Known about the structure:
By secondary structure, the protein is mainly beta. Helix content is 0%, strand content 52%. It is built from no helices and 11 strands. The strands form 2 sheets. Strands 2, 4, 5, 6, 9, 10 and 11 form a 7-stranded mixed sheet that branches. A 4-stranded antiparallel sheet has the order 1-3-8-7, with no helix packed on it. The termini are far apart.
Amino acid sequence: QVQLVESGGGLVQPGGSLRLSCAASGVIFSFNAMGWYRQAPGKQRELVALIQSGSSTNYADSVKGRFTCSRDYAKNMVYLQMNSLKPEDTATYYCYYNGRPEYWGQGTQVTVSS
């Protein structure tokens, strides 16, 4: 059993920054991908960033150059540094672990508004 707990969401003005953290507990394998998805009201959940084994990272086109995903394998943590935030980044952000089965965190709200 794996548990994922996110933290770091909140309200930020456009152009601001936030850093999300996800603490994973249970049996975590470094070769399984971890990362972040988000879901805005009325929209489907979408990939934000995913770190594959070997630390290659896939980003959604909409966040490339603004968001950075990183992973601390020793601490079983994954982070999402979000810079130059835009109102369209407003969503609930979910931590994800590509185990068998897949695991999701409970989500943390990010609101970008002036």
